[in-house]
Design brief:
With 194 residues, the chain is α+β, with helices and mostly antiparallel strands. The chain contains four helices and ten strands; from the N terminus they run H-E-E-H-E-E-E-E-H-E-H-E-E-E. Keywords: Signal.
Length: 194
């Protein structure tokens, strides 16, 4: 009986540790899909907006949930509109230059990164907007600050800590405080990629 309890306890501890490690890693794979493979609800949302020109659709697989993304440019700015697998709007991401972040927020972000990493380099920055469909639709029509949606910053950085270099995704709230840090796991492949 003691052996069964010990085995059960050991299994629970291992599962807990695995879950914690799993939650702090990010795997993402995306590939191009045709418009007819995208849920009708997502297409309807895009068509409901004014004409944006060419939209490229992608299917994104990750640990949390799979999604469809419509990528497009509006006024020379790169946008990514994400939908769940049923076509429900999740969020809108806008590629951003670090210089466009307000100074107090940028100072907080830099301070947080300096505390978490020995050295770091920002590879990519996106501003993420989430909220109800009406407020996000308004945002696409006139991108301006409002309280009707949640704003976050999502950074991909090359960071060094404890002598190890990795790629990380770091998410910040609108004040520049860290919400989440995940190590980006690259997919293994047997093929050479060029």
């Amino acid at each position: 009986m003691k052996l069964v309890k010990r085995t059960f306890l050991t299994t629970c501890i291992c599962l807990l540790c695995y879950t914690q490690a799993f939650a702090q890693t990010k795997f993402e794979r995306e590939y191009r899909v045709k418009t007819n493979e995208v849920p009708a609800r997502a297409i309807a949302f895009i068509n409901w907006q004014t004409s944006y020109g060419k939209i490229r659709w992608y299917y994104e697989e990750n640990f949390e949930a799979n999604a469809y993304e419509g990528k497009l440019k509006i006024n020379k700015q790169k946008y990514s509109i994400e939908f769940d697998t049923l076509g429900n709007l999740q969020d809108i991401e806008v590629e951003l230059n670090v210089k466009r972040i307000d100074s107090p927020v940028l100072d907080e972000i830099k301070q947080s990164l300096s505390e978490k990493f020995d050295r770091y380099k920002i590879i990519r920055l996106q501003q993420q907007f989430s909220g109800n469909i009406k407020s996000l639709s308004s945002f696409l029509q006139t991108p301006s600050p409002t309280d009707s949606y949640v704003v976050r910053y999502e950074m991909t950085i090359k960071g060094k800590k404890n002598g190890s270099r990795e790629l990380y995704e770091v998410t910040f709230n609108s004040a520049g405080e860290v919400i989440n840090v995940s190590t980006i796991v690259s997919r293994n492949t047997d093929n050479l990629e060029y």
